[in-house]
Design brief:
The complex is a heterodimer. Chain A is an alpha/beta fold. Chain A has helices at 9-16, 23-31, 33-51, 76-95, 114-117, 170-189, 208-217, 255-267, 286-292, 308-316, 328-340, 383-390, 397-416, 421-425, and strands spanning 55-56, 158-163, 199-204, 220-222, 234-236, 248-249, 275-279, 297-301, 321-325, 349-351, 370-373, 428-430, 435-437, 440-441, 444-449, 452-455. Chain B has helices spanning 9-19, 25-32, 36-57. The longest helix of chain B has 22 residues, at 36-57. The chains are: A alpha/beta, B mainly alpha. The A-B interface holds A 8-14, 17, 19, 41-42, 44-46, 48-50, 52, 55-57, 60-61, 63, 67, 70-73, 165-166, 170-171, 173-175, 177-178, 204 and B 1-2, 5-6, 8-9, 12, 15-25, 27, 31, 37, 40-41, 43-45, 47-48, 50-51, 54.
């Protein structure tokens, strides 16, 4: 049946977006020049938006956030020129008496002589930071700069965020971007960093050009996932457990370190047999080596699709725990195989930290599995996860990791005046989301429960409710 | 994107979610917490206004 009237704007848009697959709209469009013009208009808007290599999502609506690379609106230029002229005339009038004498102000820019900074009316040397709020690093009062001198550069914190915009990761990428943006907005509402607003630059993970351009545009990357680390910029808490390198501050331990930590915890239990380990392929296989360095293990190489034979073999070996040193899908298969065989090893099941990034909490048989994580689960109690949820976060651990990375970057910038792995390594950073000494994050043993991963007192035994976490340090609560 | 600062925040966001993040209407409705009908009308309004702004820019 053909549309006898024009479809509404929403209906036409839905057809354009492939949402309305009914042929009736398409048939009408084919015969209606007016609707074809509307479709062309939508296509032009889409083409322009998708042609932008990267973009900044600033605050909500007042247009005050600076956009890197953006062109200022032309209508502001005449007003800006007029304001500048007035300012110059005013400064000339105010400073006229000081233009006499040997210590003449250096005109035309360039560094002033040191005497200039001592020539304030109060006779005191002051450094130019008048509008910056007091910070723990020591904010100071402004100097009245001599006319013509170059004002010092203000540090502007620009955060880069890489998220997928296509495919299965897009919805989670949207949550990551939303929570990071709201955290930046909140920090800007509280004055930004050093009086300058924080800028957020997003790049689509599938756009290699945009990702490669980020090091030139941002101070640091925070959270995010879906792309390899670009060279030349530090990356705090990539929301991908396998992103590493010298410029990366990870939110999780490597699988080998995780295995060592889990092994240490198991050593506190009574071990009447080996820890059984199904060893798969990929980076998670290093979990086996970490465990083996601490506790006796029996291994079975992952071979069959269902993991049934591997689990059976470890059960015959009288393993006291079942660890899966492999990717999350292997963990899901092996945990299902153990459940189907009605096998509950006394010290439970163990998986690699990457499971938290892959939705293993949606697998029923994963309940009771344990690992170690650097950050709390999004749905867990505590002020940190609550702040994350208030910023629009729901269940995405990647989004919480990215949110925490944003907070870390802001705090490092406020304290150190710059953000890099070196700046992070030179301090201790503690909040209700993470506890770091330098770039080493404290790992918390967790167990999979009905609400996701909850802190566990040890490996094996029932999970214990998490303790009240420390309150945020001053300056981190905005 | 500074060109689209003339859009209100919900309209700018819906454009971004559709054209950049490639979310379906159902996903956008979930993200924004509104019915799908609202997503449709917001997208229509956002595209209309964006087209006007792009036209002025030339």
């Amino acid at each position: 049946m053909m549309f006898r009237r024009h479809p509404s704007g929403g209906e036409l848009g839905a057809w354009f977006d492939g949402e309305d697959t009914a042929a009736k709209v398409g048939g009408h469009v084919a015969r209606c020049p007016r609707c074809r013009r509307s479709v062309s208009e939508m296509a032009r808007v889409r083409a322009w938006i998708r042609a932008q290599p990267f973009f900044a999502m600033g605050d909500d609506g007042d247009g005050s956030t600076a956009v890197p690379g953006a062109v200022a609106s032309r209508r502001w230029r005449p007003r800006a020129v007029a304001v500048c002229v007035l300012l110059v005339l005013t400064l000339l009038a105010v400073n006229a008496p000081r233009l006499r004498g040997p210590e003449r102000v250096q005109r035309g820019g360039g560094e002033p002589s040191s005497a200039m900074f001592n020539a304030g009316p109060e006779g005191q040397a002051r450094t130019p930071a008048a509008t910056e709020p007091q910070t723990p690093a020591g904010g100071t009062d402004a100097a009245r700069r001599p006319l013509g001198s170059v004002p010092p550069a203000r540090f502007v914190l620009r955060l880069g965020l890489v998220v997928p915009t296509r495919g299965t990761g897009a919805a989670e990428g949207a949550e990551v971007a939303r929570t990071v943006r709201r955290r930046v907005d909140a920090a800007n509402a509280a004055g930004g960093v050093g009086g300058s607003p924080i800028e957020l630059v997003l790049a689509a993970a599938e756009d290699g050009t945009a990702v490669a351009a980020l090091p030139r545009r941002v101070s640091v990357l925070v959270g995010g996932f879906g792309a390899a680390p670009p060279t030349g910029v530090s990356w705090l808490f990539p929301a991908d457990p396998f992103v590493g390198g010298p410029g990366v501050v990870p939110a999780e331990a490597s699988p080998e370190v995780a295995g060592q930590q889990v092994g240490d915890l198991l050593r506190g239990q009574r071990l009447d047999g080996p820890v059984g380990v199904v060893v798969g392929s990929g980076p998670e296989s290093a979990l086996a080596a970490g465990l083996a360095s601490k506790v006796p293990t029996a291994t079975a190489a992952a071979a069959s699709g269902t993991c049934v034979s591997e689990v059976a073999a470890l059960r015959r070996d009288r393993a006291v725990a079942l660890a899966v040193a492999g990717p999350p899908d292997l963990a899901a298969r092996c945990l299902r195989a153990a459940a189907q065989a009605l096998w509950s090893p006394p010290l439970g099941t163990i998986v690699a930290p990457s499971a938290a990034y892959a939705g293993l909490e949606n697998v029923n048989e994963a309940r009771g599995a344990r690992t170690v994580l650097g950050l709390p689960w999004p749905e867990s109690p505590g002020s940190g996860p609550a702040r994350f949820r208030a910023a629009g976060g729901t269940r995405s651990y990647r989004a919480l990791v990215s949110f925490a990375a944003t907070e870390l970057a802001i705090e490092v910038a406020r304290q150190k005046g710059a953000v890099s792995t070196a700046a992070v390594a030179a301090g201790a950073w503690r909040s209700d989301l993470f506890d770091m000494t330098g770039t080493s994050i404290r790992l918390v043993p967790v167990v999979m429960g009905t609400g996701g991963w909850a802190p566990a007192s040890s490996m094996g035994g029932a999970p214990i409710l998490p303790p009240v976490l420390p309150v945020p340090i001053p300056g981190l609560s905005s | 994107w500074v060109l689209l600062q003339g859009l209100s925040a919900p309209l700018r966001e819906v454009l971004w979610l559709r054209e950049v993040m490639d979310l379906t209407y159902a996903e956008i409705a979930e993200v924004q917490g509104v019915p799908i009908g609202t997503v449709m009308s917001r997208l229509h309004a956002a595209r209309k206004k964006a087209a006007r702004l792009l036209g002025k820019r030339g």
